[in-house]
Amino acid sequence: MSQELAAVGIDAFDEQVYRALLARQAAAPAELAGELGTGPERVARALDRMHDRGLVGRLSGPRRRYAAIDPQHAVEALIQERTVELGRVRSAAGELAGLFEAARRGDAKEVEIVSGREALGRWFVRLQQEAKHQVRTLDRPPYALTTANPVEETAMRGGLTYRAVYAPEALEWPGVLDDIRRLVAQGEQARVLPGLRIKLAIADDALALMPLSLDLTDVRAAVIRPSSLLDALTDYWRLCWTVATPLLAPPRPTGPGGESAASGEVASGEVASGEVASGGAASGDAEPGEEDRLLLALLVSGLKDEAIARQLGWSVRTMRRRMSRLHDQLGAANRFQAGAIAARRGWI
Q1: Helices (H), 190-252
Q2: H or E stretch including 335?
Q3: What is the pLDDT of residues 28-53, one digit of tens each?
Q4: What is the rounded CA–CA span in Å between residue 262 and residue 86?
Q5: Which terminus of the chain is less hemmed in, N or C, by CB atoms within 10 Å?
């Protein structure tokens, strides 16, 4: 079984289906299943995965049929995507080298180790209470005590700025997405970054708290004060924030009469009704509702279809039907294009 596309994240079976489709140019899952000697549902799942990666397109009509997209363009896009990911790894290696250098120079004396879930929780509260301007976090499961942050809402009302980068896995935990939506409505700036491997909280540039392991049977964390190590962690947070995808936008302020403050003018990153968006797509269509905006945000966050449907309380079939309608509305061939166009229009 060929595996030439494994380097760009396509597994062996999906590549086999793709090659069979290339030979036919267009086919239904059942047609390819007979040729490959497997079940049509397995082939259909493979085609859906490749549709999400931009390798195949879904044909219109009552029958479920797919057409192969020219590999010259489709595979090149996957190569560029993987190149960007490798660039992130290269940048992260520089940050890790900074951590190593900090330890070699003896800055570790500025690090205090705390143990136990209760101690970790107390330090997280203390870090936020000591912050004067901003709190920056990297958030991912598992959670030692609770998924909620009881301090943040009060702190934001007091003028503190919160910027959080979430791992997609966090959005799959019960209640987390609802918590994020509530916090964003009150001012939190939230982004999502696949592949996030650490948890971190930084108060201003003065104090950081970082669990040393994701193993809840051995809860230990480093309390880090001003040092080269803190500088390196702060730079790493900035790198994550830069490459992360905005998750949700806070509600637009309204004028005295209840109308949007942007009424009558074009807000930054948005396109007025009837104008032409960059890339040539007409933007006269009605903007999506809150559910569709959230659907788009979760799609570009990297969540799987099943997880998105579960968070929105839909069936997977309903979720895919809604996404197909958004693809048509945006003129997009796959979810990556849909995310880019939706961001350009200011939908997410």
Answers
A1: 228-243
A2: helix 335-344
A3: 999 999 989 999 999 999 998 888 88
A4: 39
A5: N
